[in-house]
Design goal:
By secondary structure, the chain is of the alpha/beta class. Helix content is about 15%, strand content about 30%. The protein contains 2 helices and 19 strands. The strands form 4 sheets. The chain has a 7-stranded mixed beta sheet. A 5-stranded parallel beta sheet has the order 1-4-7-12-15, covered by helices on one side. It has a 5-stranded parallel beta sheet with strand order 3-6-9-14-17. The longest helix has 17 residues. The chain is globular and about 45 Å long.
Length: about 180
Amino acid sequence: MIYHRAIAGNLLAWIYNSFLGRFPLHWIRRFYLRYYLGALGDGTSIQMGCRFLNGRKLFLGERNVINFGCLFDGRSYPIRTGHDVSIGPEAVILTLGHDPQSPVFADRGGEVQIGNHVWIAYRAIILPGIKIGNGAVVAAGAVVTKDVAPFEIVAGCPAKKVGERNPNLTYQLKCSPLLV
């Protein structure tokens, strides 16, 4: 039974990642993703070229903007976002990797939690088991190896605190693309 579910899940991922994710009509991708993902919040926009490894473990809140080319790795653990989250182009969110000290190359991972009003910039990488607090900013190209506190701005590899964000965030993201 588990084997059949794994095959079905891989087939659903392949259909989206190879075909539908590249289809230029947003509403067609959204229709598929509403059933494929664990949750797809109202007003959330996912641009072309995003890839999902086990979409059933991806839970996106309301009014998220997911830019082109992002990778969401939900193979073994969930990824959860709050509302009004902006994820820049080609960002990568991982939930599974390997233990470099393991003599048998054992898996190691954990759930990724992203709070409300978080901004993850271009080509940032979020490693397994990370929690990003409300209002935090992850700079372009940053590699997040530790939890990020609310309203903290982090940059670099590995990401380190470089500033604080205004905590009075009230914006609501809106992206209603026709062909992206």
